[in-house]
Amino acid sequence: MADALHDIDQGLDGIRTTYRQQLEAASTEQQLRDANAKILGKKGELTAVLKQMGSLAPEMRKQVGARVNALKTEVEQAFEQRLAALARAQREAELHARPFDLSLPGRVPVHHGHVHPIIQTRDELLSIFKDLGFVIAQGPEVELEENNFSKLAFPPDHPATDMQDSFWVSDGVLLRTHTSNMQIREMSTHKPPMAIVSAGVVYRRDDDVTHSPMFHQIEGFLVDENVTFAHLKGVLTAFAQRLYGADLKVRFRPSYFPFVEPGAEMDVACVFCRRPDGTHAGCRTCKGTGWMEVLGCGMIHPAVFENCGIDPERYTGFAFGLGIERVSMLRYGIPDIRLLFENDPRFLAQF
Ligand code: PHE
After folding, report:
1. Prior bond to 193 cis, omega within 30?
2. Confidence (pLDDT) at 283
């Protein structure tokens, strides 16, 4: 048995030696794999030895088995090592042949998402009012009829309450048609003094180049003792001048909203056709008037205070509401409101 074992050992040594030489000589992964197959493949030399094991006497088989397995592990490890070394060498060679330029731009342009122009405008408007001392509040888009209309002193037969003008969800519940519902909500739950702004989405049955059935408004109101129309003018003029420049001219025109008395609309001098001397050429945007309407406002109606449990003999206040899309369209020169809602990346990427 000793002789037979000796022969086998020699055979295994032979396999080991040739294998090591072939590994050394291999300079590509393919050559490496070929060398490996010659030993461990289906027709490999070591495989052949393993196949003969069955014909050996049990005692012999045990000893030969141990030796063959040891060589097999050795071969496998040597192969892995050589493979890794080869991969490293290849990478090195590549790096030297074609060094990295870390300053090169990427191959695929990266698109950055950004804040929608309406939301940019909203945040800017809110931050102006925040600087003026107003507190920000939020409210729902699905609203009770009483918060949207009746507590704001709309008469029951007012055209705005009509099925044709508003989106009704169910009896007595609708999509709010303006953010003035926030006056009722806040004044019913807070005591004066208060100065509040609230931005949000509102809905009306309206649809053309300057009207969308869904749009954004900002509502603001201030309630305290001795608040006068002069405070309204002061705050809103400061706001408009922060937005369009300190030398901007504004004017207030009488107007009607059921929940204010007196009511007004504020116009700002057209920013598009203003001449250096302050006069206006008149253009399409201002329809030749030199003025642009930007918001509705007025002194809060005593009936509204009463509906919210605030004493109208003691308190007065002003309120205003403005459309965010309109401000956005004016400042960026956007001609059609629908562009703001189509979300075409070619449009949005410009902001
Ligand atoms: N809610 C009014 C509108 O949507 C605007 C407004 C708000 C007017 C507050 C006066 C006071 O047209």
Report:
1. yes
2. 84
